[in-house]
């Protein structure tokens, strides 16, 4: 399999080189990032689970907007952060 060219992004201020066009959640997992957010009530760590837009455990913040990482592709210059308030109203706990 041919290796894709990488582009620079940041995750919580850490520079990462990720393969351009790859699924963002998969690329972050492959880079060793497993915790994408923490729940608002208990602070429990959450990371991608379904990889198809159903569970909302992959919520991240990009340019101030909370989005599902599994529904995005890696693009140059993404400024990614863990959502500060847990990532939304999708937590049962
Ligand atoms: S991993 Fe479930 S919505 Fe993204």
TrEMBL record:
Q: Name one GO molecular function term.
A: oxidoreductase activity
Tree of life domain: Bacteria
Query: Do the record's keywords include Oxidoreductase?
Result: yes
Instruction: Check the UniProt entry and state the signal peptide residues, or none.
Output: none
**Gene3D superfamilies for this protein:** 2Fe-2S iron-sulphur cluster binding domain, sarcosine oxidase, alpha subunit, N-terminal domain
Q: Which SUPFAM superfamilies match?
A: 2Fe-2S ferredoxin-like
Keywords, comma-separated and alphabetical: Oxidoreductase
Which InterPro entries is this protein grouped with? 2Fe-2S-bd_N, 2Fe-2S_ferredoxin-like_sf
Indicate what this protein is called per its UniProt record: (2Fe-2S)-binding protein
Q: Which species does the entry assign this protein to?
A: Roseovarius gahaiensis
Q: What is the lineage of its organism?
A: Bacteria, Pseudomonadati, Pseudomonadota, Alphaproteobacteria, Rhodobacterales
């Amino acid at each position: 399999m041919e290796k894709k060219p990488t582009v620079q992004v940041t995750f919580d201020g850490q520079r990462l080189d990720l393969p351009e066009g790859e699924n963002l959640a998969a690329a972050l997992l492959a880079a060793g990032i497993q915790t994408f957010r923490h729940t608002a009530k208990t602070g429990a760590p959450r990371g991608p689970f379904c990889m198809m837009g159903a569970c909302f455990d992959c919520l991240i913040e990009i340019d101030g907007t909370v989005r599902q990482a599994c529904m995005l592709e890696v693009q140059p210059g993404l400024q990614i952060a863990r959502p500060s308030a847990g990532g939304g109203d999708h937590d049962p706990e």
